[in-house]
Amino acid sequence: MTRHSKNCTASSVYSYHEKRKDAKVSGYGTLQLRYGKDGVKDFDCCSLSLHPCRNPVITPEGHLFDKEAILEYIISKKNEISRKMKEYDRQCKKEQTELAELSEAENRSRVEKFLQTEMAVSSASQAAQGKGTSTTTTTTSTATQKAGTSGSAPPAGSSVSNMVAGREKKLPSFWIPSLTPGNKEAKIAKPDKTIMCPISGKPLKAKDLITVKFTLALDGDKGRGGAGPSLEGAKERYKCPVTGDVLRNNVACVVLRPTGDVVTQRCVETIIRKDMKHPLTGQTLTEKDIITLQRGGTGFATANQHLASEKARPVLQA
Q: What is the pLDDT of residues 99-132, one digit of tens each?
């Protein structure tokens, strides 16, 4: 194969490069694209605002946030949960009212049925007494009574019609949206009061946030509020306070929980894990005090491993 095989069109072999190029132009086949540098979040940027943190805090899972952004998120979630709880309480009160009305209607119907039964019994006893006091009975009057009994209207409770006894209000209607058989009011489930982390999806509390302390690597800086150069455009903003290595996206970083200092993973493996002592203060550390800083999360994906995007398109089959 010649040196410039990618641009060679005289070859008898349909190369992989030509196949991908034709698939991209034709509109068929899955497109794959790897994110560039602009699509990768810096290690010291907030996971919500994607800007360098002014007051950085970290979750126990290692996700970095700006304190102002994450507190606004927690407050907004609390307000949303409070609003949902009010709607749920309103629904519960409505259900209790409906149950009370149903029980009252059922009791009323029982009382009415009892009164009707009593009236029927009393009328029958009166008729029996009147029949005993009468001295003469003719066949014509007997026939007339039988005819009258057979032609009398049935009681209202024994009617089979759907339009009596208030049953017309319960009939389904297929042309009125509110009366269709499948139109049922959706019930609101009891909202969960737990606030979840927007990145990891695990429970998050404001008291669990750990303040992070970066060591500035810029010359002439007097701190975050000093008159030094801006952190937004600087490429090398921070360094490890122990080894002096510049912190970048390709450098694994660790946050020490007691003080919030950010050191490199190499410092942890070579220095800290020997005696589990804080290299700056001498405090005793445990495994829970060593929090790995999650870095490189992109604006398009939530993890460092997913740096490629795919777009499904129709497949051209032979």
A: 898 889 889 888 888 888 888 888 887 777 766 5
**At 118, is the secondary structure helix, strand, or coil?**
helix
* Beta strand extents in 80-217 (DSSP E only): 210-211, 215-216
Q: Closest by alpha carbon to 42, among 292, 297, 254?
A: 297
| Alpha-carbon gap, residue 142 to 150, rounded angstroms | 12
pTM summary value: 0.61
CA dihedral 123, 110, 155, 145 (to 10 degrees): -20
Between CA 242 and CA 263 the distance in angstroms is 7
Q: Which residue has the tokens 């450098």?
A: 251
Instruction: Calculate the CA 299 to chain-centre distance.
Output: 20
Please work out, in degrees rounded to the nearest 5, the angle formed at the alpha carbon of residue 301 by the alpha carbons of 198 and 310: 145
- Show the tokens assigned to 177: 């949206």
Alpha-carbon gap, residue 142 to 169, rounded angstroms: 43
**Do strands 238-239 and 253-256 pair parallel, antiparallel, or not at all (unpaired)?**
unpaired
Give CA–CA dist 110/118, Å, rounded.
12
Instruction: Tell me how far apart the alpha carbons of residues 2 and 9 are, in angstroms, rounded to a whole number.
Output: 11
